[in-house]
């Protein structure tokens, strides 16, 4: 029996039991049999959740790009690694073979070396969904540089914050990006960011849209001429198992984003294993993860997971509705996609449109459907199942996080019976549990609690870059010897898990984790604003949307001041990005607060959700009269 590829429910339970009984042997067998190592490990696992510190395959030496590319060259070099589908459907798709990818990565790696980038240096990548995004990541990994990809929808302020936190020496960007019918001038955003980022020495610019750019002498260069003069040979650096691979920022409940640090060997083993099993990838399948590579989903399941398994995957530059709402389905038929991995937000948006957009396409190539980013609601699950999967494609409703590196809880297609809205069972090697507020594990089924993991897994983030104390406080201080996910979950009568929401001030909007603190900080910079509070409320498409309660310094200002609302959202766009804009802004005379000055967001969430009959106890408020005022002016 191969633990690497599970093919039935009975086998799942056997393998899961083995992983619980002897997790080190379980992961060691997978690592030995399925990857290329330059040197094997001295120990499989060293861990201490008290410090916290985790080391997988310590002492081993490898380079992840040899596992992604080089080992496939002899027998599968001509196989397509990436299909690049441009934003404009009139522009031909590009098929990049493993041989081509090897050449591109080597040439790019040599460019990085020529610019003085070396092992351990941080390189910020701010690119749209074009092949250079994946190639630049792999080029960094080949020479041991640490890549930090920033989603190319973040503002210059957010970009600068991330560059400075990691002290990046280089930025890789493009002149611009396409977004349907729009062009975005990315280089202008980078230039603005670098006014406050002194660590950056070089900027490499990809020519994509033809946007006019200004190249700063001594710092900025077009990438193409450098690649033309670069060698196609670049020996991969020998790296240690625990050498850093990448930093990826995620929102927290405080204002500063968290730079999650992932290391090399454990991440490689885990994402390869989860890709193979969750998507049941085989032979000549074509895999499509629609998430931007700027998020962890794209890192793990567009780039690293598929390539390690020798898969063909799609990089799509555009949006679901260009040139019309049938673009996703057209791409599936065009490229004969076998597995589609997308977000519930996208599914809800697509479901809202006329069904004819779906019905005109065959979609017969599909074998497995997946969802990611947030729990999927039942209506969207059934629409996806009925109209896209034709009731013949199992849906892998996956739960995981930037911090976990890989999928943690998910059905295994063709093995695990699915139930709408349930992520079902933990994958082998993942020991999930539920905890009560007193710190005791909740046993049995038909229970709800705080979701924790009680044993380390290979792709767990090792720290928050530059702030290990925050890492410990955030994930390992709530419950002794357990990783706390920050999520609530229930376990049903069969042992299936359903994620029910966050327990902190992080709101999942369109699959993106948005901390409320940085948004409130941005709003409070407006000269007319005294204070603000952000909560989430249910949204038909996004899952959750952002509702802002804003108290103005001048109580005489109109509560229907739409101009002021636009100014507040403009500040949010400038400071964070358009993904954090508020759907609703309610101006208030004051916010309900406890005697210690804490804003009662629990009450505000209920009001924003329309649940005004369950406000609960307000006796602890210093100003209970504000609750009625907020309720009377709520924007429904």
Could you give a quick summary of the protein structure above?
With 636 residues, the chain is of the alpha/beta class. Among the domains are: 98-239, 3-Layer(aba) Sandwich (Rossmann fold); 279-397, Rossmann fold; 507-632, ANL, C-terminal domain (GMP Synthetase, Chain A, domain 3, 2-Layer Sandwich).
Secondary structure layout plus pairing:
Elements: H1 9-21, H2 23-34, E1 43-48, E2 53-58, E3 61-62, H3 64-68, H4 73-76, E4 80-85, E5 94-97, H5 98-114, E6 122-126, H6 131-143, E7 146-149, H7 156-166, E8 170-174, E9 177-179, E10 182-184, H8 186-194, E11 202-206, E12 220-222, H9 223-228, E13 239-240, E14 244-250, E15 258-263, H10 265-278, E16 286-289, H11 296-308, E17 312-316, H12 327-335, E18 339-342, H13 344-351, H14 356-359, E19 368-371, H15 378-388, E20 395-397, E21 432-435, E22 447-453, E23 463-464, H16 468-475, E24 483-491, E25 497-502, E26 506-509, E27 512-515, H17 516-523, E28 529-539, E29 543-552, H18 562-575, E30 584-588, H19 601-608, H20 625-632
Parallel strand pairs: 4-17, 6-7, 6-8, 8-11, 11-12, 16-17, 16-18, 18-19, 19-20, 29-30
Antiparallel strand pairs: 1-2, 3-13, 4-5, 9-10, 14-15, 15-23, 21-22, 22-24, 24-25, 26-27, 28-29
Can you offer a commentary on this structure?
The protein has 636 residues and is an alpha/beta fold. Among the domains are: 98-239, Rossmann fold; 279-397, 3-Layer(aba) Sandwich (Rossmann fold); 507-632, GMP Synthetase, Chain A, domain 3, CATH 3.30.300.30. 31% of the residues lie in helices and 23% in strands. The chain contains 20 helices and 30 strands. β14 (244-250) and β15 (258-263) form a beta hairpin. The radius of gyration is 24 Å and the shape is globular.
